[in-house]
Amino acid sequence: MGVTENPLQLKRIHHIEFWVGNAKQAAFYYRHAFGFSQAAYTGLETGNRQMCGYVMQQGRATFLLTTPLTEAHPAAEHIRRHGDGVHDIAFEVDDADAAFAEAVRRGAEPAIAPRDWPGAQPGEGRVRHAAIKTYGETLHSFISRDGYAGPFLPGYRAAEIAAQDAGILRVDHIVGNVGLGEMNHWADWYSRVLGFKRFLSFDDKDISTEYSALMSVVMADDSESIKFPINEPAPGRKKSQIDEYLEAYGGPGVQHIALQTRDVVATVSNLQRRGVEFLRVPDSYYRQLPGRVGAIDEPLAELEDLGVLVDRDQDGYLLQIFSKPVEDRPTLFFEIIERHGSRGFGKGNFKALFEAIEREQAVRGNL
């Protein structure tokens, strides 16, 4: 079965759904820490007796924070096993039924058969929804609209709470961690099922320190607007960050979400004032930086003060910084990235970054 361009007619990432223990508090956190405004809500007040959900938006990035209201809801067991984390990376498509059928034909395991999204009101139009399984317990949903013009999805009502925007534009990429020996399986899965291509790959020579290593392959759709790096651990002297994640999360899952900004200095300054904690690399990194990346537009002193990293490839340069885990378990974290032509992922920063992560692992007693 050959790969064709966009066989499922994926249009964009519609939203990322997090299953969390307390969505009200999580919504407060993403509003005040990351600048996401609340747009819509479902819960007891809307007649939903099973779960509550808060829709958070900034730029073109949409997060759905979902908490179960009953033990029977599947999120309850998911949270017990994994803690808070990403459950669903949902795509908007032309036709959810057709996307689901083609994905299953290409070898995907069904999770939710095509259905009308519940909760639509008379005259509101409808939304079709289906989902398939990917790594771990993560899903990919397919969502298509048929005349629906309500807030977010049926069953949600507008519940706007504005936040101070932090300058986040969109989701740049979403990184998944899988077990040893599983990376190529899932890379082939994304190629076969979704029609993605291998965009970049890194082995343990690219991503290693004295103590640990990992391997990674980046899968991208035909437009290169949807990018999913997939990591697996590589043998090392001590436990890698991927091993730590897999142990803490209880299996494969989404490791981090990269959020693109047009001004990383302004965004990171804003986030740090709000209390978001970021990893730091040694000062020696910045002494070596001019010779490694050449001229850039941003003042080096400002980047060093904030801890922002820089890398250059044949297409340009990028600026990036990584948060510490945002959960009590050392699992999910965020990346803030600004691109000046570069299509890469900061290969030149891997060693310094991973040494910074190892310092945090050592503090947690997990190295």
Describe this structure in words.
Helix content is 26%, strand content 36%. By secondary structure, the chain is of the alpha+beta class. The chain has helices at 23-34, 74-82, 96-105, 183-194, 241-249, 264-273, 284-293, 300-306, 350-364, and strands at residues 10-19, 37-42, 51-58, 61-68, 85-93, 109-116, 126-133, 139-146, 157-161, 168-177, 197-202, 213-220, 227-234, 253-261, 309-313, 316-322, 333-340. The strands form 2 sheets. A 9-stranded mixed β-sheet has the order 6-7-8-5-1-4-3-2-9. Strands 11-12-13-10-14-17-16-15 form an 8-stranded mixed β-sheet, with helices on both faces.
Number of helices: 9
The string of secondary-structure elements, in order, is EHEEEHEHEEEEEHEEEHEHHHEEEH
The whole-number mean of residue pLDDT values reads 91
| Share of helix, binned | 25-40%
Major sheet characteristics: 9 strands, mixed
Strand order within the widest beta sheet: 6-7-8-5-1-4-3-2-9
Strand percentage = 35-45%
* Gap from first CA to last CA: 43 Å
Q: Topology, please?
A:
Elements: E1 10-19, H1 23-34, E2 37-42, E3 51-58, E4 61-68, H2 74-82, E5 85-93, H3 96-105, E6 109-116, E7 126-133, E8 139-146, E9 157-161, E10 168-177, H4 183-194, E11 197-202, E12 213-220, E13 227-234, H5 241-249, E14 253-261, H6 264-273, H7 284-293, H8 300-306, E15 309-313, E16 316-322, E17 333-340, H9 350-364
Parallel strand pairs: 1-4, 5-8, 10-13, 14-17
Antiparallel strand pairs: 1-5, 2-3, 2-9, 3-4, 6-7, 7-8, 10-14, 11-12, 12-13, 15-16, 16-17
